[in-house]
Amino acid sequence: MGRGGIGSDGVSGGGGGVVAGELREVFEKLKGKLSEINSLEGVRNLLTWDQQVFMPVNGGAARGEQQAVIARVVHAHQTDEALGEYLEKLTVQFGKLQELGFSQLEIASVREAARDYTRTKKKPVELAARAARLESTGVGAWQKARKENDFSLFAPVLQEWLEIVREEAAAVDPELDVYDFCLDKYERGATRKSLDPFFASIKNPLIELLRQILKKREEEEGNNNPNPQFLHTKESFSGSFSVETQKRLAKKLSEELGFEYASGRFDESVHPMTINIVSPFDVRLTSRFSETDLSAGILATLHETGHGLYEQGRDAQACKDGLPASRPPGLGLHESQSLLWEKQVGMSAEYWEHYWPEVLTNFSTSLPNKTAEDSTQFHKAINEIKPSFIRVYADEVSYPLHILLRYEIEKGLLDGSLPIADVPAVWNQKMKEYLGIVPKNDTEGCLQDIHWGLGAFGYFPTYTLGAVYASMLLKTAEKQIPQLRQCIKEGQFKPLREWLREKIHVVGSLYETADELIENITGTKLDASCFLSYLSRKYGALYDLSTPAAETKADVANAS
Amino acid sequence: MGRGGIGSDGVSGGGGGVVAGELREVFEKLKGKLSEINSLEGVRNLLTWDQQVFMPVNGGAARGEQQAVIARVVHAHQTDEALGEYLEKLTVQFGKLQELGFSQLEIASVREAARDYTRTKKKPVELAARAARLESTGVGAWQKARKENDFSLFAPVLQEWLEIVREEAAAVDPELDVYDFCLDKYERGATRKSLDPFFASIKNPLIELLRQILKKREEEEGNNNPNPQFLHTKESFSGSFSVETQKRLAKKLSEELGFEYASGRFDESVHPMTINIVSPFDVRLTSRFSETDLSAGILATLHETGHGLYEQGRDAQACKDGLPASRPPGLGLHESQSLLWEKQVGMSAEYWEHYWPEVLTNFSTSLPNKTAEDSTQFHKAINEIKPSFIRVYADEVSYPLHILLRYEIEKGLLDGSLPIADVPAVWNQKMKEYLGIVPKNDTEGCLQDIHWGLGAFGYFPTYTLGAVYASMLLKTAEKQIPQLRQCIKEGQFKPLREWLREKIHVVGSLYETADELIENITGTKLDASCFLSYLSRKYGALYDLSTPAAETKADVANAS
C-alpha cells in the first residue's frame, strides 16, 4: 500500500484537475492543523510522564492546573472551525480521493480525522468538564473506599459515571448500544455481539485448564515422591537482588529486543508505563523493581518494551505530519505487542535458555546454588500458575477469567441489569466460580482496579483481545519466519521485530479496526482457538497434564 | 505591605461601592487569564528542561515543533481580547485602586500585566515569527562560525538581528533609545544614561586592581623565596574526583543552603541552569561536573542554588494566582542571588572552613596529602585571579571587564557607531586594554557567547549589575544580621536566606525596578563602591597587596 503523498500532488483524474489541486491544498492545511494537535498531545504526555517519573512532590497541584489548561487548548484545537471546514471539503469527495491521487494512508487519515472531529464536537463541553472533575474526585473516592474497605463510598462515583457515559453516548452516537459505545472507544468496532461469543469460547476451556493444573499441583504436592518441577515456584527464586543491577539488565534486554535508546528512555515509576512524547522519535518506558523479586521488574520491562517497539515502529513521516492513520487502531492490538514480547517471547523456555547465563553472572551471590542448567527451573518458576485475587498479579491462564468477570459486570452495569449495590456480591460469586477463590474484602475484590474510578468502562476486554491477537500473530509469524524459535534461543529478535513492524507498526489505522488488520495478516478473524491451544500446550507440558483439555475443546469449537 | 486580596473584597471608598465590587469581579477574571498564561509558561519551561536534561537525541526536531506550537498558544493567550478588556477597565481606575481596597501586590500586578499586554500587542506578529526563525538559524550560523573560526559567517545574522531589534523597538516603544529598549527587556529601567557612569566607575579601579595582582604574582613567582600562597592555584587542586561523589556533595550543599527538594530537583546538563516549572512549588537546578576539576561543578551548583532559592522564596499564593507582581523585577537582581550565594558565601574563607573536612572525607584518596588545616589553600585556589579569554571562566575581578567590553560593543552596534565588520578588531583591542591578553582567534574572542546569536543585546550588563547588587545586599545584611560571618563559618545559612526571602524573594515586582527595591533595602541607589571595596579587601588580603587601589579610588569616587 502506498504511504505519504510523494508524487501524488497534481495527479488528477480526467476533468478532475482543479478539484485535485484544490483538495491537495486543503489536505496540506489539514495536515498543519493535525500536526499541531499531535504536538500538543505530546506535550500533554510529557506532563504526565514527568509527573510519574521526576516531578517533585510539591509540584502536584500546579501540574493539575497545567494539565487542565493544556486539555482546554487541545480541545480548542480539536474543535477548531477551520479544521471542520477542511474535513468537510475532503469528506464530501471521500469516494473520489483515491482517483484524485490521495494515498491510502491519506484517505484513512481523512476518515479518522473526520471521525475524531465529529465526535469531539458532539460531546457537550459541559459534560466533558463534569467528566474531568469526576476523574479527579472519582479517583480520590476510590482510594478512600479502598483504604476503608468500604464499597459504599465508591458506589456514588460509579453511579455518576454511568450517568455521564450514558449522556455522552446519547450525544455522540445515539444509534449505538451504550456499552458498545464504551467498547468502541478503546477497541474500534468491538461490540457485545462480537465479544459475547468470544468470551463464551474461552470461559469453560480456561476454567477447565485451570482446574486440571490445580488438581495436578495438589496431587503432586501431596505425593510422597513429588515431581521436582512443582518445587519451582516464583518463591523459589526470591531473595535479595540489587535493584541497580536489575535495572541495568532490564534495560539491556529491552535494547536487545530492539528498543532504540536514541529515540527513547527507560526510567522507574510506581506504575510501569510506555508513553510517547513523539512517536517514533521519543518514546519512554518505565518499570518498577523490587529488591526481593528477580523476575517481576524484568518481565514488566519486556512488557513495556513491546509497547515501545510498536510506538518506535510507526511510520515516521506520517507521524511527523500528524496523520491520524499512523496511530494504532486500538488498545487490543497495542496490548498484543506487549504481551507477545513479554509472554510469548520473554516467558518462553528459549528466551531464558539464552539469557539465563547473564542472570547468573549478574546475581551470582544471590543465586549461589544455581548453575547454567537451571534455566528450565527459572522458566517454570516465572510461569507458575496460581490463582490470585489481584488481576495485575494473575498468571496467563487466570488473567482472561479476571477480565471475563469484569466484562460481565460492566455490561450489567451499563444495561441496567446489575444494580450497583450488587457488584461486590456478584464479583465474589464469579471469582469463586471462575478461579475458585473468594477475596476476603472488596479492596482485594471489586475495588482493586482504578479503571471504573476514571469512568473507563469497556477498557478491560482489550487486555484479553491483546492476548489472543498475540497468539494469532505468533502462529502466523512462526509460519512465515524461518526458524523463529531457534532465533529466540540465539537472542536474535530482529526477524520477529521487523515482521511485526512491517505487518502492524507502520500500518497504523489504515484498516479501521484491529480485527480487519489481524484478518489481513493471519487470514482469520478474531478467534481464541490458537490462544487456547498455546496455553494448553505450554501448561500441559509444564504441569505434565495427560489431557490438554482446553486445546481439544477449542479445536472442536473452532471446527464447528 | 499587604499581599493577596484577603479581606479586601467589598471594601469601598465613599460612594465607590459599586465600582469596587465590579472591579473586584473584573480582577478575579483577570487572575483566571493570568494564571492560565502562567501555567502555559511552566509547560514551556518543562519542555526546555526536559530537552536539556533527559530528552533522547532523536526527539529534537519534534521538540522544536512542540515549542513552536506552545509559543503560539502562549501568544494567543497573552493577546486575548478579553484580557485586554479586563486590563482596560482596571487601568482607567488605576489611581483609585488602592482606595477601592486593592492590595499593593494586586495594583502592581495590574501595572505589570497591562505593560506585558500592551507590549505584546504592539509587537508585530510577523516580526515575532521572523525573530523565532532567526533564533534557530542564528544559533546554527553562530555554531558554524565558531567551528570554522570565521566571523564573516556570523556577521549577516548580527545584521538581521539589529534590523529586527530596531523594528521591534520602533513598534513597541518608539520614544526609547533602541539600546535602552534592549536593556529594559532584561533590566527594567536600565538606560545608557544610568549604565555609562556605572561602568565608568568600575572600569579604572578594576583594571588597576587586576594590574596590581598580576604584577604581584609575577614578582612572587620570579622570587627566589616565593610566598607559598601563590602556589595555590586551581590547578593545584586538579586530580581525579568521582563525578558521582561530587554530585552527591553538591546536592547536599544546595540542600544545606536551604534548597527544598520536596519542591525541586537537581540533575546534570551541559549548561548549568535553574528553571521554574512552577515557582515556588517545582524549581529545578542543573549543574555539570568534571572528573578532573573538584571545584567547578560544586561552585556552579551553589550559583544555581542561589537562583533556585529566589524562585522557591517567591510568594506562593501570588504565584498560584499567576500575579505578575510575584515575578523578580529583572535579571540583575536574580543574578545577585546566585552570585551572593556562589561568590560572597560559597567562595568565602568561612564557608570552606566549615565544609573542607567534608571535602576531605569524600575525596580522601584524590587528596592524599591534604589535612584539615588546608581549607585556606583551597579557598585561595578557587579564588585564583588569572585573566581568561572566556567570560564564563573569568574570575571575580576580570568578569566585569568582560562585561564592559560587551556593553561598549553592543551600544556601538545599536547606535550605528560601530560597523559589524569591526567587532573582532574592537573586541581584541579592548581585551588587550582591559585584561592585557588578546585571544588568538575569534572563536575565543567575539564568537564565544551565544547571546548575540539569539538577538539578546542588553543582556550582558545584568551579570555585573548582579555582582554589584550582591555586594550592596551583603553589606546591608551584615549590618542587620548579628554574627553573619560566624553563621557562615558554622554552616548556618537560615538567617541570611530568610533575610533575602523577606527583603527580596517574596517582594517580587512590587517596585517597578530592581534599583528601587535595592534602594529601599540598602538605602542607596545602584553604586559600585561597595563591590569595589569588597574586591579590594578580599584580593588585597589574598594577594598581599600593600595599597588596596580600587577601594581607595572607589571611596573617593563615592565621596565626590
Automatic annotation (TrEMBL), chains A, B:
Coiled coil, from the record: none
Lineage: superkingdom: Eukaryota
Matching InterPro entries: Peptidase_M32_Taq
Pfam (any one): Peptidase_M32
Gene3D superfamilies in the record: 1.10.1370.30
Name this protein carries in UniProt: Carboxypeptidase Taq
